[in-house]
Specification:
Length: 211
């Protein structure tokens, strides 16, 4: 079973519907024990980093997430769910994150965006693959996916980078992968057929693990 973590900050229904479209069952939960027992875990999210961490910690979900990743269970982070995996964010901070992946979450163009570039980065943009990743096997290089964000991740370890994307003349990390963890800055559930391929691949990974 795939569970989508409910911590009060995420468009959970759209994620569940995305899985339903590819024939994968997913249920929503805010129970840390259900998260621990799941075959695959999805951490979605939109909104402020600090508030999200407060909600996760209050529910004991931060500990459950760390245990799931440490056990190398299939894990999918989406948007804020990617950023929360890192050490800290400079959004209203620094604010401490889950510290599963060393690195920081930083703002686009802190000294001002180039002319004609609007923040947040919102809409469709292409992804460039940096290395083979199982969940992206059915996604052609250069595919367009949907973004909504003003911050991006800067991993300390470049080996975790799965894809990058160009925005305003700057390359940023648009997804990461390590072990059975894959997390994207873009929203697969809002990315049309490309996004559905990612969700389908994640479902197959979970099915293959059979936890």
């Amino acid at each position: 079973m795939i569970v989508v973590i409910d911590y009060g900050m995420g468009n959970l229904r759209s994620v569940v519907k995305g899985f339903e479209k590819v024939g994968v069952t997913a249920e929503v939960t805010g129970d840390p024990d259900v998260v621990r027992a799941a075959g695959g875990v999805v951490l979605p999210g939109v909104g402020a980093f600090g508030m999200a961490m407060e909600h996760l910690q209050a529910a004991g979900l931060d500990v459950a997430i760390k245990e799931v990743v440490a056990a190398d269970k299939p894990f999918l982070g989406i948007c804020l769910g990617l950023q929360l995996l890192f050490t800290e964010s400079e959004e209203f901070g620094p604010v401490r994150g889950l510290d599963i992946l060393p690195g920081r979450v930083v703002r686009f163009f802190p000294d001002g965006a180039p002319a004609g570039v609007k923040i947040p980065h919102m809409g469709w943009n292409g992804i460039e693959k940096r290395r083979p990743v199982t969940v992206l096997e059915d996604v052609p290089d250069g595919s367009y996916v949907y973004f909504v964000h003003s911050f991006y991740v800067a991993p300390d370890d470049p080996s975790v980078i799965a894809t990058t994307t160009e925005f305003g003349g700057q390359q940023f990390v648009s997804s990461v992968a390590t072990g059975r963890l894959f997390a994207s800055q873009f929203h697969p559930e809002k990315s049309g057929e490309v996004g559905l391929r990612i969700l389908r691949s994640f479902g197959r990974i979970v099915e293959g693990v059979r936890v």
